């Protein structure tokens, strides 16, 4: 049986092409999943841009979010069976989810929330894992932080849209988000932010609300331009986490005298290095799935496109590239 996929064109990486995949056979821990819906993320654009600069020998299928139905399983899979409904963010070094059938490691896969549609579920995994790991594995926020503050820079984006409600659900910190537009301000408040400020002058904005220092800062975009403000407002012995790479050296002088910490969060560290806690990502997804079914969280789906085709993939990439998307973009087959 052949499966359809949308791939980067190796002859012209600026273009996408439709290709056919042969039948997939699982490795011991793998699932073969019939994909029902996907999401498009900034990482898709980043990988595509990298391939535009370097030669590509074979078609590259992007996509790191999906929901679907398990078709077959590897001989060491214990927690799933054919017919199960699942969702996952996949792996960076394997073929992506912009296809009708995909191989994914069962240990980083969760059960799809029963109360969500395929599209509502597909937009969750990558951002939920990034938000959870950033908040609780890197920043080490805990439920005893009642008088502490968390600043989420980029609160209306995909990760911020889940970081806000997760911080509210699993801690007692005061959640402050940044935005610059009325739409994104309302989005952050609707997701549960206690306060929304303009990112263009964070120290002044915070002082207006009686705040000089922030205990935890989760930077979700443009660490270079935000760094001077972050250095100024991070509290002594505070914690900073970013999911984006810096393009220029960061001046760490202020962090040193404040004994503040800087962490990086990358969702694919565990799968790239097959860490001993790899299966924790499956556990996190199952916990998030339960939260969603119990209405403690809601999907961050904002825009839905229909059909796996080149036009929809390109349209989703353009929307993200424009930089004014609240929440997530889903593509339902």
TrEMBL record:
Q: Which SMART domains match?
A: PKS_ER
Query: Which residue range or ranges hold the Enoyl reductase (ER) domain?
Result: 14-331
Question: Which GO MF term does the entry hold, naming one?
Answer: zinc ion binding
UniProt superkingdom: Bacteria
Which Gene3D superfamilies does its entry note? Medium-chain alcohol dehydrogenases, catalytic domain, NAD(P)-binding Rossmann-like Domain
What Pfam families has UniProt attached to this entry? ADH_N, ADH_zinc_N
Q: Where are the transmembrane segments?
A: none
Q: Which UniProt keywords apply?
A: Metal-binding, NADP, Oxidoreductase, Zinc
Coiled-coil stretches noted in the UniProt entry, renumbered to this chain: none
Report the InterPro entries cross-referenced here.
Answer: ADH-like_C, ADH-like_N, ADH_Zn_typ-1, ER, GroES-like_sf, NAD(P)-bd_dom_sf, Zinc-ADH_QOR/CCCR
Establish whether keyword rRNA-binding is in the entry.
no
Write out the similarity annotation: Belongs to the zinc-containing alcohol dehydrogenase family. Quinone oxidoreductase subfamily.
Do you know which PANTHER family this protein is assigned to? QUINONE OXIDOREDUCTASE
User: What name goes with this protein?
Assistant: Zinc-type alcohol dehydrogenase-like protein
